[in-house]
Amino acid sequence: MKKNILLTGASSDLGIDLIETLKSEYNLILIYNKHKEKIKKYVDNSILIHSDFTKEKDINNLINEINKKNVNIYALINMSAITLDSPIEEINMNNFTSSYKVNTYAPLKLITELKPEIAVNISSTDGIDTYNEYNIIYSLTKSSLIKLTEILSKYLKETKIYALCPNFINTSIVQNMNPIFLESELKRIKQKELIDPHNVSLKIKELLKGKEKSGSIFRMDGNNEYRKVN
Questions:
Q1: Which residue among 7, 46, 74, 84 is buried most deeply as judged by most CB within 10 Å?
Q2: Domain coordinates of the chain in residue numbers?
Q3: Which residues neighbour 90 within 8 Å (Cβ) at sequence distance 6 or greater?
């Protein structure tokens, strides 16, 4: 019998690639906020649930719905993310709190309430050392997600928790960035090429085997580098 995986951020480019990578081996519960049309074709083999993680009510409703369906979650992949960045002087409370709700609070609630065997948190190298003055909020929340991974691994003994931290991935969001800014950022952080989304999916699939020590943090750089950082 196939095991069940809950994937947040399912309608993102990386989410779509991950669905294609995992659908033959696992039953997928796909969580999305926007762009349902991207995952409609998977509805026959997957459960689709809409949830807006900026709203605590939606997070609680999602947990209640999973529990009501009496679905045993083998693995949880926290891929939902929001980027509401601005120059330092323009950071405001709304952007700050919305980002934390999606990028850090939702993973915390889902892991602690659903208690999967495996949890993979998708963070970023911006949460480690590639941040810049314009993505402070995003970097803070992704750094918090890394620390959350380490902390929860100390207390949730029945769940193996990992964080995967890639830098720039070849997705439509990155492709639509200002090309001059993107080029300068890649040069600044010494990233030679964008990461292929499928390579990220394969690393996630590997982590789903649960062979690594809980609390482990892994880094992916666009130079075909993949390494444990703690």
A1: 7
A2: 3-228
A3: none
106 DSSP β-pair partners: none
For the chain, what percent of residues have pLDDT higher than 70? Answer: 100
The arithmetic mean of pLDDT across residues 133-161, rounded, is 96
d(CA 155, CA 152): 5
pLDDT band at residue 16 using 50, 70 and 90 as cut-offs:
very high
Question: CA distances (Å), 29 to each of 15, 38, 45, 57, 221, in order?
Answer: 12, 15, 9, 19, 29
Q: Does the domain at residues 3-228 carry the CATH identifier 3.30.2320.30?
A: no
- Type of residue numbered 154: K
- Does an H or E element contain 146, and which? helix 136-155
Give the DSSP letter of residue 152: H
Question: Measuring CA to CA, which residue among 3, 17, 53 is closest to residue 166?
Answer: 17
Query: Looking at the DSSP assignment, which residues form a beta bridge with residue 119?
Result: 76, 161
